[in-house]
Write a structure and sequence with these properties.
The chain is of the alpha/beta class. It has 9 helices and 7 strands, in the order αβααβααβααβαβββα. The protein has a single domain, classed as SGNH hydrolase (Rossmann fold, 3-Layer(aba) Sandwich). Helix content is 48%, strand content 17%. The strands form 2 sheets. Strands 2-1-3-4-5 form a 5-stranded parallel sheet, with helices on both faces. A two-stranded antiparallel sheet has the order 6-7. It is globular, with a radius of gyration of 21 Å.
């Protein structure tokens, strides 16, 4: 009888420890945030096929314990990104990939205002200690904004999937914009992964 009581007590302790372990949320790893428009949100493709999801898998395959948050919104502009910056890139983010401007051009936002907004986004994030990777697109270069704020410039977001701003058919959904398909987002993720990897290593 005594042995049974001891065994039951030990089993109870073990069950309690298991419950407490399960109650503690698992560590989410280092937070990387991608902020932008439909090119970030992944318009027209399943969630697992957008570039932030592919970027997360690429970084994990390289040994980085990361969570990539997709803060892309279809139709967003640099001004919209600036207004929602604090909620889109929450406290604790280590790296942010920033890509805006296509909708600014579509909606007639003056280039000077677009650049001012991007400068403010990068400056505020850098002021919070976030490593920033800023993307451009044909024919615009934002290398000076990145350099001025100590950010990394990735060049053309569409490198490898477009020629002079025109999407290659094999990487396009063929819609009115056109947006990228899953294969196109794979190219984007492969292009960005080494840059994000470098930013993560620089924070160690």
């Amino acid at each position: 009888m005594f042995r049974f009581q001891v065994l039951a007590r030990r089993l109870g302790y073990a069950l309690f420890a298991l419950v407490m372990l399960l109650a503690v949320p698992a560590a989410a790893g280092t937070l990387v945030v991608t902020i932008g428009d439909s090119n970030t949100a992944g318009f027209g493709v399943p969630r697992a096929q957008n570039y932030p999801s592919k970027l997360e898998r690429a970084l994990r395959a390289r040994g980085f314990d990361v969570t990539v948050k997709n803060s892309g919104i279809n139709g967003d502009t640099s001004g919209g990104g600036l207004r929602r910056l604090d909620s889109a890139v929450p406290k604790g983010a280590a790296v942010a990939v920033v890509f805006f401007g296509r909708n600014d051009v579509r909606f007639g936002v003056p280039q000077a205002q677009m650049r001012k907004n991007l400068d403010a986004i990068v400056s505020r994030l850098r002021g919070r200690g976030v490593a920033v990777i800023l993307c451009g697109f044909h024919p615009f270069s934002f290398a000076d904004i990145a350099a001025r704020n100590g950010a990394t410039y990735c060049g053309d977001f569409f490198s490898g999937v477009a020629v002079n701003g025109r999407k290659k058919p094999q990487y396009s959904l063929g819609d009115f914009v056109p947006h990228l398909n899953a294969a196109g987002y794979s190219v984007v993720a492969d292009h960005l992964a080494p840059l994000v990897q470098g930013a993560l290593r620089g924070r160690r």
